[in-house]
Amino acid sequence: VQLQASGGGFVQPGGSLTLSCTASGAGGMFESRTLGWHRQAPGKQRQLVATISSGYRADLADYVEGRFTISRDNAKRTVYLQMNSLQPEDTAVYYCRYGPYPFIWGQGTLVTVSS
Fold it and tell me: How far apart are the C-alpha atoms of 30 and 85, rounded to whole Å?
């Protein structure tokens, strides 16, 4: 399985971005896998942002609750992260992940929030 993430970019505080991550090579297993997004800011450890289960249960970290939404489209083998009300502290490289630990990771997409 390989993951291709996209959608990062530069945005001003208060702005929005939607990240996408598409899996290839997953076959029929995609539907049964939990998917997630993590992020890593400069000089900091990677942290969990959100997960979505095979049953579409979404869990978000407290620091993005109410601003971010995770969703999935099994037909497209894609997981999304809709990010609203972005703040400078959201600046990070965002990584999608697939499956159970030790996870398969996407290559990361950079989100920069700055005025």
Answer: 30
Three-state SS at 6: strand
**Neighbouring C-beta atoms of residue 76, cutoff 10 Å:** 12
What residue type is assigned to position 7 of the chain? Answer: G
Predicted confidence pLDDT, tens digits, the chain (115 residues) = 999 999 999 999 999 999 999 999 887 899 999 999 999 999 999 999 999 999 999 999 999 999 999 999 999 999 999 999 999 999 999 999 999 989 999 999 999 999 9
Residue type, 85: S
**In a 3-state reduction of DSSP, which class is residue 17?**
strand
Which of 12, 5, 16 has the alpha carbon at shortest distance from 98?
A: 5
Transcribe 30-87 into DSSP letters.
Answer: GGGS-EEEEEE-TTS--EEEEEE-TT--EEE-TTTTTTEEEEEEGGGTEEEEEE-S--
**pLDDT score for 7:** 97
What are 108's two structure tokens?
């990361």
